[in-house]
From TrEMBL:
Molecular function as annotated in GO: GTP binding; GTPase activity
Domain GED stretches: 1-76
Organism from which the protein derives: Puccinia striiformis
Signal peptide: none
Pfam families reported in the protein's UniProt record: GED (PF02212)
InterPro entries, per database record: GED, GED_dom
Protein name: GED domain-containing protein
Amino acid sequence: MPFSLSLLSKKRIAVMHLLVNHVREGVQNRLVSSLYREDLFEGLLMEDEGLRTERERVKALLDAYKEAFKTLSEVL
């Protein structure tokens, strides 16, 4: 009898896994389809003005540091 209970338990577990995976895939597909909206892409891909300004400032600093390092390397 323990063998049949074990087999029955394994069947139940397998069915539950199939059901859970099916529901998970369905929920995931619904969530992705609700998030995937082409009309929002343009706004989401635009860089924030503050970040753009900060990136340009940091790039200018980096260029200045590189130039200073190059000058120091030539002197030394």
